[in-house]
Design goal:
The complex is a heterodimer. Chain A is mainly β. Chain A has no helices and twelve strands. The model of chain A has no long low-confidence stretch (mean pLDDT about 90). Classes of the chains: A mainly beta, B mainly beta.
Chain lengths: ~110, ~120
């Protein structure tokens, strides 16, 4: 079965701390895509990154970085020097075949 | 504004009534998706269209739910004989690529409350 697990339900950090959001996925497909989305309090999901199963290169975009490890089926997301505006719910998602499966989300609260 | 739009933003209805939601995707996007999101959960895939063809339906989509995309542009999602369990946020998303599944662009959602 295809599944996405985000074990951290809620995380609170103080501004400027680094924080890592975990994502573990399950799939039997050899070709799949992994995504991270941000859902701020306004409610609209915002795309952050897409990674295909053949590309294990880590990626950095500003304060955001992603660590994809097929050996552990993980696609973790790190925010460096967190800011209050990073407060949101973050979803990891798996696309395989014709379906998307979202994880339950991690609520990140960044305190001033 | 060229993003995904959804109407209405909020809908309150009584149990047993029918409701219809509309989604207008980004104009050049050929794929359109519907999701349902309940409080504290991630979005759950319901169905998607490529142009006007409905290609996939989740088993979550009971026979009370029907979706259309008649001209390959906007889409409607209808729920007949609503139940309290249908209360949720209904999200629409669109994307362009047919093969590499570029990022989906989400609309603001329609929040349905069934009394």
């Amino acid at each position: 079965a295809q599944k996405v697990t985000q074990a951290q339900t809620e995380i609170s950090v103080v501004e400027k701390e680094d924080v890592t959001l975990d994502c573990v996925y399950e799939t039997r497909d050899t070709t799949y895509y992994l995504f991270w989305y941000k859902q701020p309090p306004s409610g609209e999901l915002v795309f952050l990154i897409r990674r295909n199963s053949f590309d294990e290169q880590n990626e950095i975009s500003g304060r955001y970085s992603w660590n994809f490890q097929k050996s552990t089926s993980s696609f973790n997301f790190t925010i460096t020097a967190s800011q209050v505006v990073d407060s949101a719910v973050y979803f990891c998602a798996l696309y395989y075949g014709q379906n998307f499966v979202f994880g339950p989300g991690t609520r990140l609260s960044v305190l001033p | 504004d060229t993003g995904v739009s959804q109407n209405p933003r909020h809908k309150i209805t009584k149990r047993g009534q029918n409701v219809t939601f509309r989604c207008d995707p980004i104009s050049e996007h050929n794929r359109l998706y519907w999701y349902r999101q309940t409080l504290g959960q991630g979005p759950e895939f319901l169905t998607y269209f490529q142009n006007e063809a409905q290609l996939e339906k989740s088993r979550l989509l009971s026979d009370r739910f029907s979706a259309e995309r008649p001209k390959g542009s906007f889409s409607t999602l209808e729920i007949q004989r609503t139940e309290q369990g249908d209360s949720a946020m209904y999200l629409c998303a669109s994307s362009l690529s047919e093969t590499s599944h570029n990022e989906q662009f989400f609309g603001p959602g329609t929040r349905l409350t069934v009394l």
